[in-house]
Records
---
Amino acid sequence: MAKKAIFIILTIFFVCSLAEFARAQENIIPVTIIRVSQPNVVVVEYCCGKEKVRTRIKLAGVKPPIAYAGITDLLKEKLRKFIHMPGVSFDFALGHTSEEKVWVGYLSYLCQGENDDHEIAIINAEIIAEGLAEVDKDNAGKNMINYLLGEQEKARSEKKGLWLIKEDIIASPGSEKNDCPSCER
């Protein structure tokens, strides 16, 4: 009798665990990036039943460096590399849903790891790690904010992209005026 009770309890536990896992995976949507409309917004297609639907996705936690046109162009170019790439997935940032006109969340794909294992690479984090954008704390989502801030700090300490430019400006204030021969002195 005790074995039967343990079996029933373990079966219930297994079914509940499986249902929880399925609910956690239901927000991950396979998408195809069609175009980059803004430095942190892409247009994607995804399957909804038998038809393909297009929507816009704002990359959660990514604040493009509008003041630095060269970096913004590099950011767009990075995103263009993922156009029509198979295996890209989307997941909503915490607090955001498909009811929004522009979806807010994270794009990811499987990549080859160091030990020939497949790892999930988050495009939003890659952009920040390369110094192509800053962290936007307003829409990063509580589950990812610390990870994104850590990637930003690495880029800052390694002086990558945007952080190299900002460090140069901070290190030599007024250098912009000295480079301009027609500027007043």
Note: Confidence is low (pLDDT under 50) at residues 15-25.
---
Amino acid sequence: MVGATGVVGSTILAVMEERGFAAGEVVALASERSAGTAIPFGGDELIVRALSEDAVEGFDLVLMSAGGGTSAEWAPRFVEAGAVVVDNSSHWRMHDDVPLVVAEVNPDALAGHSGIVANPNCSTMQMVVALKPIQDAAGIERLVITTQQSVSGTGKRAVDELLDSTHRALHEMAPEAPVAYPHAIAFNVLPQAGSFKEGDAYTDEEHKLENETRKILMQPDIGISATCTRVPVRVGHSESVNVQTRDPLEPDRCRELLAAAPGVVVLDEPARAIYPLATEAEGRDDVLVGRVRRDPSHPRCLNLFIVSDNLRKGAATNAVQLAELLHERGLLRRAARA
């Protein structure tokens, strides 16, 4: 586990422990400053080792959640040493020779790996789990997406900033200047998740939703318009998604398809205030879907509300699921040579 002390890395280790991940040995790697840190695991402790030239040998599988720069540098080294890398950064996702995989959506893509498998962006991940049964049944022509993304997607610093700024506001204390975001996040909604490049009206998070969705669903012609926002929620991304299907699809039939899909839980009794909530998603691996209804402006459009724990299914759990599938299908390189 590379990036073992980060928010996602520590969640990956927790998910591995919960699922009884079948590893002969688990090694925690991180930056030099984290070396020596003790991490609880399996009733014992893992002592974090520094990521170094000497640390890449002897592994069958490497789970990486240490940022794009680290992944770009170190993933090929692990592959050269004989391991398969499941990477959580954005660096490898759109490489043609790297499969971008969601366990419930396109697991067969794993067979095409050349040593690296990419984990999608958390917002893309939960959405395509819900879209796959719709695509299979009625086709998808166009998506209009608005996300409400929690601060844990930015990391521990953003979570701490939300808690501190909320505490200060509630106790009528002077606010501190925001660090994680360009504006204060407490009691606010920022119409920006991700960063803007010069001359581009869309953020990198919005482009990830567009490009990754098309790659995972293997449909490059889907029209996609995305707006990603940041909200004062600790854990759990929410998405309002307008789906234009190729063939007519009634809301009741859509609910049936979703209820039968792996990894999806339908919560859709709005008159009784039953619908997906970030607080209900936290700590779960399910993708929660509700508010399924006809778009009155178009005969082949449905509206959905999709919520999931961005640290678990949106990142850690899928990475562990992919690792399990690689093992089960004999796609680990050392296992294949044996």
Note: The CA atoms of residues 31 and 105 lie 33 Å apart.
---
Amino acid sequence: MEISAGDTAWVLTSAALVMLMTPGLAMFYGGMVRVKSVLNMMMMCFLALGLVSIIWVLYGYSLAFGTDSGAGLIGNFEFIGLQDTVGEVEGTIPTLAFVMFQMTFAIITCALLAGAVADRIRIIAWIAVIVLWTTFVYVPLAHWTWKFDDGAGGWIGDRLGALDFAGGTVVEINSGFSALALAIVVGRRIGWRRDPMRPHNLPLVLLGAGMLWFGWFGFNAGSALAAGELAATAMINTQVCTAAAALSWVLVEKFRDGKPTTLGIASGAISGAVAITPSCGYVNPMGALLIGLAAGAICAWAVGLKYRLGYDDSLDVLGVHGIGGLVGMIGIGLVATTAVNEAGGDGLFSGGGFDLLGKQLVASGATMIYVFGVTWLIAVAIDKVIGFRVTPEAEISGIDLDQHAETGYELTDTTSGAFAGVGQHGLSEYRQKEQREDS
């Protein structure tokens, strides 16, 4: 097929927008952690940006988008080192444009996991997570969902026939439930539930959220892989759903807590962008509005689950991305319409019955089980072999100093007065707890 200059320009621009999301996530997450952890959190995001890029070129793209093995589970090594991609065409764009676009998806998905284990893991352990998780979790799931080649591709997209326009399974449910597994294996932060662990820089959070919102237009509308009506539909749906979820979240806060918060409106916006990711190319703007209202309210409730169930998902990756992704996938089964995309389907409320909804539930359930189980195994192996956590002393005094010999701000002496009182009290309690458990 002949290359379209317009389509190519749009996909390359979209790839750049999605790449910008990872620095945006670094700001978003960096502002949400405590002052003594901001550099470490940003470093974790940038390490994902570097390492996943190399993995994708060496073998990640080939296993995700190479010819299927026959079982719908994984590709082959035909594109290892990106061989046989130069000069080739994918639809109406150069294959390398598609490779770059998909690379940025893998990067941001991996970086999302960092939010679940903030403040407490060693950089060497995080590097191991990036390599193993990208290889054994992200790459197979991408093949399951996005490999379409006349029935010989991934089982979710080709054989089951579930719909996922831009990554409700591959990116959102995947990151959320992988994050849960990591958080459980790594364990809670010292002082969790007792010490205040509030965001140290809310303006940085809002700036990061704005960058993510902006980048999401490339994420979703770029997934049309062409500059046309479908891309325009995905873009307007992204804006409508993100806006609706931001307002829905702060409305819940107002009624529940008495005051809407800036952290709430930022988190709500992200939950809406998450929910519309799988559905943006299959629903109309009113459907996007309904999904956004539901996502903001449901995710505002879901972030409180960690306190009821006792897992320390530091920055609510499960509550925002995992649950938001589920809302979007189920939303397809309810309000999708072929009037928007003939390649999609009709949901329950569009006269399609329960067929599509059932497929969406199967795809979502299989994704949750697979990514949680494999990530848990990876995390246990890493913990046994090299160990995940920094020392209690380092966690109390600050992971930035321990892992990077740097501090994010030089306004106070962070090695002495800034954390001394809280640090010694927390460390003392931690040591006493260890002694009680040993005895």
Note: The radius of gyration is 21 Å.
---
Amino acid sequence: MAVLVTGLFACTSGTDKKKQENVELVKSYVTAVENLDFEAMGNYLDVNYLGMGPSYGDSIGKMDAVENWKWCVENLYEKITYSRSRFAAVTIPDGDNKGEWVSNWAELSIVFKNNDRKVMIWANTNYLIENGKIKRSFTFYNEADVLKQLGFVVVLPGGAQ
């Protein structure tokens, strides 16, 4: 059995091993999010981390991201659960987003404190990994759907909905 396992690892390319390590890093970050462990979340982020999304123009650096998570853990979120979560590693060979990326698609259940409100969202986050840290992320989900599930009503100018 040991020979078989050693043989399997010997056949794994360095690129495949690096991609798997990157996926495991993102899985650990997701676990920290589910555990509402903002300190661990911060440990996975590069000092020059930049998070973008979900809205166009949204961006946040590491210090603000950690403080934002801390505030949300202490004041907003009771529980976050990733289900149907899938991960994929890809290398972008050139251009502005060149590098090693891990994408996570998931159905998220978020339970809010004090009112037991719960929302379900489909989310996609893409993580750029450099030197064993998350350097950048792009997050996409439907913010309007979250607000609707929380009971907010959007009223357009002139009273139209």
Note: The beta strands are 45-52, 59-61, 77-92, 99-112, 118-130, 133-140.
